[in-house]
Amino acid sequence: MSPKRVAILISGGGSNMVSLVRSMQEPGPGGEAHAGMPCLVLSNQPGAGGLERAKEMGVPTAVVDHRPFKGDRVAFEDALSARLHFEGAEIVCLAGFMRILTTHFVSEWQGKMLNIHPSLLPKYRGLHTHARALEAGEAEHGCTVHEVTPELDEGPILGQARLPILAGDTPESLAARVLVQEHRLYPAVLRRFAAGDREPVFLSQD
Ligand code: GAR
Known about the structure:
By secondary structure, this protein is an alpha/beta fold. The chain is built from six helices and eight strands. The protein folds into two domains: 1-109, 3-Layer(aba) Sandwich (Rossmann fold); 115-206, Formyl transferase, N-terminal domain (Rossmann fold, 3-Layer(aba) Sandwich), CATH 3.40.50.170. Helix content is 34%, strand content 23%. Strands 3-2-1-4-5-6-7-8 form an eight-stranded mixed β-sheet, with helices on one face. The longest helix is centred in the C-terminal third of the chain and has 24 residues, at 171-194.
């Protein structure tokens, strides 16, 4: 079977995108081929650093800037979908894509669209997750990959990686350690998902 075409949506540096692309370009732990291949890296921010990184890895890139749509979310989402269909995308990975997507877009891609979120969902949906986990005095924190459904940061959980919060952690130090785990978790989940396996992946820090 030919590999599933995977589009990755970013808004910034794209470190998760890099880990996903690399994982699709490498054989699996048992030497098996990946069931996905990167077909497109798309950003809503023309200056996103991840676009250059994708080009260096030989992946086609596109920009669909949300600003000219002046708040018309449906028109923006139609442009996104059109670009994804043009590349024949079969799986969509949100990787630091910082636009809220409406039911209009989500219902079209539901079951084929994943997101990574920097908290142990259902805790800390939304922004500033690391600061909020610290303020709450949590003993542990982490990241989650989930299927995207219309509610923000909801949807079936496909994987979580957890790590302890250390004395003296700041939002920045915690974010950096969570990001290392994001780069382990998202490729592990995508490898399974592309092969049709939705069994969740649970990782703890090495
Ligand atoms: C990641 O930490 C990701 O979990 C987060 O944005 C960062 C993007 O980094 N996503 C969200 O907060 C989505 N709600 P990256 O561009 O280096 O992958």
